[in-house]
């Protein structure tokens, strides 16, 4: 292996000893192991996590897995980055050190002890939240020290207090196990409290409440327990109001809101509650604001709500529903295509007006493209059913003029069969 300089793709030469021996990339957070070798933290942690117990370079056994930050080398790398800034090299940031388990354990004890002053407990919770925000590694350390159980206790033992709100903000940063989810959804007082928080004066408290509702509903297998949550009065109103907040001011609101709404709408018998709360109008009004993953979830929710008569009627009554679904049917992902096609199929099966709107919006072109694409079989089946349903609604010359599609004759024969 060379020991001098090695060229990068951009023509920048990087000192060999600044590269991680594992990834061969410029080290951002160099750490030294027990054998004296230095690696980038992410690379050596991945090496150890996959079960390796030897030093990658020397092959000597690692006597312990302590990673000591190499501050001198990191500063040299940063100086080199600054010196080569004119060549497009960006300075690596000074990494934040992983949370010390002893410190985390002390903070959790401080936060959970009822004998401590409220101010002291709040300070501990805020320090923990800061650590959790810093990295996945820190969240893993915090979670491993029984944090979720402690935080659940603080949230619900101190209802309507700042302690509860601060614990809630930290708790929603972690996934919960099923037993922890059940401990919330099976307790009517806890669900009623979370429902009240959906209307709190603080938007952050409202969003965190919706986040915990989504976590516990999605994490509970029992349909009966999930239905108990969805049946709580005003829970849909609270979640939908969160979704109406401007994304520029509250970027988490729309994401958390649609996740919670989708989880609640998985309970079929309470979907009419979502419709009555204005879910149809809000989903269509905000559809263009969603990022890819959230757009998929929004379309899945629309399809679920279209399966109940009230939902179908509400979406059909919105002038933008069908044009928007037709427009985006192929633009997001295979899943989104499947959900949009399913929603259109439900709407057009129930409403002649929706059929006319779909044809006017150019659904024929979209469906021809869809059945010839590599999308899922379920999406294609829905598209074929929709073609068959709408075959009497096409303008006389619309199919005949579809010469841009090499397989359109096959579709025409299918529609006319």
From TrEMBL:
Gene3D superfamilies the record matches: Leucine-rich Repeat Variant, Zinc/RING finger domain, C3HC4 (zinc finger)
Residues of the U-box domain: 13-87
Keyword check for Lipid biosynthesis: no
Pfam families: ARM_PUB, U-box
Keywords of the record: Transferase, Ubl conjugation pathway
PANTHER family linked: U-BOX DOMAIN-CONTAINING PROTEIN 26, WDSAM1 PROTEIN
Role description: Functions as an E3 ubiquitin ligase.
The protein, known as: U-box domain-containing protein
């Amino acid at each position: 292996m060379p020991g001098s300089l090695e060229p990068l793709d951009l023509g920048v030469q990087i000192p060999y000893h600044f590269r991680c021996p594992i990834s061969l990339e410029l080290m951002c957070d160099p750490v030294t192991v027990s054998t004296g070798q230095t690696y980038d933290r992410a690379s050596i942690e991945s090496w150890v996590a996959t079960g390796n117990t030897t030093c990658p370079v020397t092959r000597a056994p690692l006597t312990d897995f302590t990673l000591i930050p190499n501050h001198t080398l990191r500063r040299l790398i940063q100086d080199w980055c600054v010196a080569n800034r004119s060549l497009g090299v960006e300075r690596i940031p000074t990494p934040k050190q992983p949370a010390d388990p002893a410190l985390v354990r002390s903070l959790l004890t401080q936060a959970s002890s009822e004998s401590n002053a409220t101010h002291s407990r709040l300070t501990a919770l805020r320090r923990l939240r800061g650590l959790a925000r810093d990295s996945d590694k820190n969240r893993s350390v915090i979670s491993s020290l029984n944090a979720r159980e402690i935080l659940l206790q603080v949230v619900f033992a101190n209802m309507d207090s700042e302690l509860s709100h601060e614990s809630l903000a930290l708790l929603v940063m972690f996934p919960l196990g099923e037993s922890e989810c059940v401990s919330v959804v099976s307790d009517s007082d806890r669900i009623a409290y979370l429902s009240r928080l959906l209307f709190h004066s603080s938007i952050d408290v409202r969003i965190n409440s919706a986040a915990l509702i989504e976590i516990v509903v999605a994490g509970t297998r029992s349909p009966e327990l999930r239905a108990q949550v969805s049946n709580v009065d005003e829970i849909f109103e609270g979640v939908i109001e969160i979704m109406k907040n401007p994304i520029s001011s509250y970027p988490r609101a729309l994401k958390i809101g649609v996740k919670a709404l989708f989880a609640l709408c998985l309970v079929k018998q309470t979907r009419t509650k979502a419709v009555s709360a204005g879910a149809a109008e809000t989903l269509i009004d905000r559809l263009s604001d969603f990022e890819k993953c959230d757009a998929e979830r929004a379309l899945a929710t629309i399809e679920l709500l279209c399966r109940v008569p009230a939902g179908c009627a509400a979406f059909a009554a919105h002038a933008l529903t069908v044009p928007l679904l037709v427009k985006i049917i192929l633009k997001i992902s295979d899943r989104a295509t499947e959900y949009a096609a399913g929603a259109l199929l439900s709407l057009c099966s129930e409403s002649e007006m929706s059929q006319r709107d779909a044809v006017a919006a150019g659904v024929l072109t979209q469906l021809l493209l869809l059945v010839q694409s590599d999308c899922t079989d379920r999406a294609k089946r829905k598209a074929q059913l929709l073609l068959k349903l709408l075959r009497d609604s096409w303008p006389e010359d619309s199919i005949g003029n579809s010469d841009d599609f090499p397989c359109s004759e096959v579709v025409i024969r299918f529609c006319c069969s």
